[in-house]
């Protein structure tokens, strides 16, 4: 990026040659340019795609360099997440945003709260991407605005050391804009519909799109029953549609995450087209549950028969018209799905599992890597898992194999608070703490995300505030548990007028109107009570 002084010099030259009547300040122009680094969503998509590709290469060289994100359902939540990351960790490297289709459905649809079944307006997805980046760009403008005010104060004081220090901060500024992994569900229709929505998402700033192999009109949440997958040819057409969208828009290194729900999906809507034994369609059909038939007498009215494994197979068909897969075939289907997706244009994989278990994930990834050595995953650290119970049971089972005395534990009731201070619970908590680094090292997980954490944090914090404010604590419920904690912990949002852009607006008014500007940040602004 150009330095702050270089931008001032460029603006000065422009004004001298073309803008003698403009009445603008070169330094103000440089400040506004610095505060608005990204001119469009496509600028963001190209910038963040490069970051993500670099992070993928770093992970290939060292699995300890995995990446993370949290799902955010509003631009403000994404903004506060990145402000917190910069505050506590000093840099944003390896930290992304996740856009969860679940949260879009539950929180952003004009229909009101909906289940995660692709019933919400698909345009809301691209709208949320744009909103998230609007808030992140505003976070840039706000932080840089603070630096500019510091610089003005240093200049007024004639403090050359401070001037140099602040200018270094401005020139070395790290943007809040980071990659987003955006959920396009099953594509919201056919491959043309997928392409059109992918374009909107990329134009809004998405450098990475996640798509799943479920049927669009039967799509279910990954942790609900009744999931229906599609033959590989259908899914690959949608992957290609997303790739075309990236290439058309000039995001040549855009990232596609191919998600398979086959581990928990026992149904398919259609029998795959197959042209010869062993092709993809034939492999897909080989997992169908059914009975082999020897003659027409074995076929009832309306039955469907396919040739599979050299024999005639009558697949089991439900009253809904859906066909069943063989019990226990989920892992084999996952492995085939992942290999096929990687061989046809996907960059990353997502395996939706029913529990967080490093060994289970590693077992599938190792099989995939026999064919695709650099295969790596995006993994859902899902709130749909009962993490406490799952890991306590994993420790219980491991201790049982080791012959330890477990007479003081009831495996089915390990969630009980009665066990919270036991050695078993402490070991389980340590496994939860290290789950991401363990899975990155042992199970090929490049990116760890939590799909809907801020849905839960909003509910929990609101419950705690309501309990006290509407109870006998009254206003103290807010002051002690919210405002006082904001002040003590240095939460910038305690100055909510500043966070909402009041100071940015004042700066602009001064640029535009000079001494005549009517500013909001004077001595009577109550935000001054917070220092």
From TrEMBL:
Q: Which organism is it from?
A: Ferrimonas marina
Respond yes or no to whether keyword Metal-binding is given for this record.
Answer: yes
Q: Which cofactors go with this protein?
A: Mg(2+)
Q: Which domain of life is it from?
A: Bacteria
* Cofactor comment text: Can also use Mn(2+) ion.
Family matches, as Pfam families: ICL (PF00463)
Keywords assigned by UniProt, alphabetized? Lyase, Magnesium, Metal-binding
* Active site, per annotation: 221 (proton acceptor)
A GO biological process held by the record: carboxylic acid metabolic process
Instruction: Please name the taxonomic classification of the source.
Output: Bacteria, Pseudomonadati, Pseudomonadota, Gammaproteobacteria, Alteromonadales
What CDD domains does the annotation carry?
ICL_PEPM (cd00377)
Q: Which reaction does it catalyse?
A: D-threo-isocitrate = glyoxylate + succinate
- Protein name (record): Isocitrate lyase
